[in-house]
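Hi R.,

As promised on Friday, here is the backbone we talked about, encoded as structure tokens. Could you run it through your design pipeline when you get a chance and send me back a sequence?
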């Protein structure tokens, strides 16, 4: 079965105005890489409560491996209150003191790391020392091709130290334009334009790839080989943006592991992200064949003409 992609961090319930939806970037990513024919493994922790039991049922229904889902007697299953503005931009209230803050290094994780091709992790699940220390142990034992850091800067859920240490342990970082500006400030970089900032961050953090998602405008990426790539997105009717970035990350890493070029990886990530955004919820079924057909037939999205010199 394809590649083994381990996704560490939060499995939680997004409390939307329309009702609770199972989510969390690591869980969404594990589901998406699974659907592309890989072994997507989530390493997380649920509370021994009704929401935890409901989450397990849904995780099993989605076909995600639950071997490394842990149970917590004390802390509840994670939840996030989500609201949307008139442009459907989400605003988050992330509940603290929950099970995914307490992920432990359990038996079997060393063997899992020994066979993993990619380890994906973010910043949210590092807000508590227990989960952060577990992640560091996983990174110590990981020797696969790619460590993917998905920057998710949520209010009061990260520190500069966490960001710097995470970037030191990753060789790929995925972030949006707002987060790129934040990291440019943290590192004291003087670059002003998006391409210059992306290149400066790649160089400063000694990364293999730095990819900036631009919503409907697509993605801009640079590599340590000197590639500078802008790939526009695809036109879709926006239904629900939750999980679109995780879809991009899943498509991007799947392509890189399959030795596709950087433009191809961005285009495939754009397609999967756009398809997720056109559906309700982050875990609707999207098959590999459907992605390929979408890429063949979909109209191009908004082109950022400031990046036209890098357009593939």
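Update: got your reply. Pasting your designed sequence below so it's all in one thread:
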């Amino acid at each position: 079965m394809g590649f083994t992609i381990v996704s560490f961090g939060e499995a939680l319930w997004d409390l939307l105005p329309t009702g609770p939806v199972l989510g969390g970037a690591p869980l969404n990513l594990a589901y998406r890489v699974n659907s592309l024919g890989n072994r997507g493994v989530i390493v997380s922790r649920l509370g021994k409560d009704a929401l935890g039991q409901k989450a397990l049922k849904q995780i099993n229904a989605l076909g995600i491996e639950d071997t490394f889902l842990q149970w917590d007697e004390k802390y509840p299953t994670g939840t996030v209150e989500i609201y949307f503005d008139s442009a459907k931009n989400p605003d988050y209230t992330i509940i603290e003191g929950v099970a995914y803050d307490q992920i432990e290094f359990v038996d079997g994780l060393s063997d899992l790391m020994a066979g993993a091709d990619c380890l994906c992790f973010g910043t949210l699940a590092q807000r508590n020392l227990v989960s952060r220390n577990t992640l560091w142990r996983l990174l110590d034992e990981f020797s696969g091709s790619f460590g993917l850091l998905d920057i998710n800067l949520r209010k009061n859920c990260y520190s500069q130290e966490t960001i710097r240490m995470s970037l030191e342990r990753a060789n790929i970082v995925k972030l949006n334009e707002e987060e790129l500006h934040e990291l440019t400030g943290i590192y004291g970089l003087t670059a002003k334009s998006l391409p210059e900032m992306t290149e400066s961050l790649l160089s400063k953090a000694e990364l293999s790839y730095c990819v900036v998602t631009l919503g409907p405008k697509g993605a801009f990426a640079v590599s340590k080989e000197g590639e500078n790539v802008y790939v526009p997105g695809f036109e879709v009717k926006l239904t629900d943006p939750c999980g679109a970035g995780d879809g991009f990350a899943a498509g991007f890493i799947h392509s890189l592991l399959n030795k596709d070029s950087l433009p191809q990886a961005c285009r495939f990530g754009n397609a999967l992200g756009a398809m997720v955004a056109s559906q309700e919820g982050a875990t609707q079924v999207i098959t590999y064949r459907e992605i390929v057909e979408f890429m063949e037939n979909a109209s191009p999205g908004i082109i950022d003409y400031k990046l036209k010199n890098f357009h593939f």
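One thing I noticed while checking it: Residues 243 and 267 are 17 Å apart (CA to CA).

Thanks again,
M.
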